[in-house]
Description:
The protein has helices spanning 14-20, 33-56, 62-87, 97-125, 137-155, 161-181, 187-220, 224-256, 274-294. With 315 residues, the protein is an all-alpha fold. The protein has one domain (29-309). Helix 2 (33-56) packs antiparallel against helix 9, helix 6 runs antiparallel to helix 7 and helix 7 (187-220) runs antiparallel to helix 8 (224-256).
Amino acid sequence: MADLPAPTVPALASNVAARLANASVEVKTETPLLPRAAFFLISVASLVGVYFTGRLHGLEGVGLVWRWLHFWGLALTSGMLAWRLLYLRRSESGLSDERVGVLFRDLLGRIGVLRRFLVPLLLVGAPAPWFVPYLSPWQAAALTTTSLATALAVLGAHERRSAAFAAFSLGLAGLALWGWSDSAGLAPLAAVRTVHLWAFAAWLGGALFNLGAAVPAGRRNANLDAVVAGARQLERFRWVVRTALPTVILTGVWMALRYGGVASPFWQAGLGLLVPLKLVLILALVVIFITCPLYRACSPVRGVCNLEDLEPVGR
Ligand code: HEM
């Protein structure tokens, strides 16, 4: 039997293509403010959390900030690689394989750029556990090794999926190890604290990927297939934030209630005031999460925030 001619694959899924037939891609030069503000506020909330826990464990001075750097490096790495491993696709249904492939390679290239910042951060943070007196030597050694191994794996994370998976898993394992070490052997507390830290990592690292990879790669790929692929990736990440937000609040409130009831004087002065401060920060982040898509402020590429923006006005 003679070979049938190969079907021509439309550049865009037929229903999307019909709606977007006359659309053109617009790209702004400035990076939107709201995702940068979210990244900053999540980092501040984590610093506040690490400060609170550290002070309650008797830590002071440089050790506190150094310990936070350790956390921050592990969280940025694992959350960023979650995007690379879970939300990013080499091809997207109904879209041109070639154009989505170019976007995919550009995004991996941007991970290669981001690793130049993550590897030194992980190396600088690695010795921090040795300055945390309440850790046992094996806990400090395990945490330092995890940070160094994560740095090593990140080196190849843009080229090899296996390296990305190793760095992602090591980052999560490091956070779980902190969760356990900070909880004095109380298994329920260690579990809740670890979930709090993982939700923080997924949110923070995803925000880093959006700003440091998705935005610049989206600018370089100003075509409809890349915009639709970018919008789908962003929507996958939004689902992660929709889960991380309540998780961080519920686990955080659960941990806070161990120190006193809602009306306890502990929350009204000194260290205790940091927890209401966290509630204010989380409220600001909720506002950003809601307003970002409303004002189309998640990406400088029109349509990535909301595909409907590509449709001609008046349709
Ligand atoms: C974006 C939001 C948030 C981030 C990034 C975040 C991050 C963190 C981090 C990194 C820690 C340090 C854990 C450790 O050192 O072992 C922490 C601890 C803590 N967080 Fe959050 N957090 C957030 C929101 C909240 C909220 C909304 C609450 C609830 C009011 C909360 C309550 C707590 C408490 C009570 C601790 C200390 C637990 C303890 O030491 O026993 N957090 N958080």
